[in-house]
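Contributing new records

If you add data, match the layout below exactly. Sequence lines come first and carry their own label; structure lines follow with theirs. Keep one chain per record. Anything else will be rejected by the validation script.
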Amino acid sequence: TTTAKYFDLSPQGLVDEDGDIYYEPETFQKITAQIELNSQLWAAVEKDDVATIEELLSKGAAVETRDKNRTALVMAVESGLTNAIDALIKHGANVNQRCGNNGETVLSCAINSGNPSIVNMLLQKGATTVSTRKDGATPLMQAASLGGGWFGSGRKPEHDEIVAMLLKSTPNLTDPLITWENLPFKIIAIKASGSDDFGLMIR
């Protein structure tokens, strides 16, 4: 014997009482073809293969394809794949896309990677420096905390280089709300940089 099921009509096909969709054959083929294209795009991004990335995008692969919370662009940023980053942005990938559970942006992911060239690349492509994560941290504050903070054991010259880039790209540096360890952020930045250029720029 078989158990009878109740179905509702949807634009895609029949939906049973458990919420499972039974697609029309044509719709199912389109969906599976799109999934395959997106999967191939992800693999091409992992290989930093620009020619294949552009070919797949021209065939209809989704530039914002994602694996859970990560878009292809985020994955490329975290892996330092500059060719893939450039190709994805050229084809419309959103440089200010949020990802992750804390509301991180693509720029946040680049800062976490500690790679100044990727951070600079995103800034040149229009990444915003004023958006905050859910915990309230700005990109500048985030960069300040890399490696355990200014005097942390894991602090590297690359981290200070990222701070320098963000200082030049972040408006309202005199805002008293931009603080870290109860000191105005601009003072912390100048102190850590050891460069008169920052002091002149902010004054």
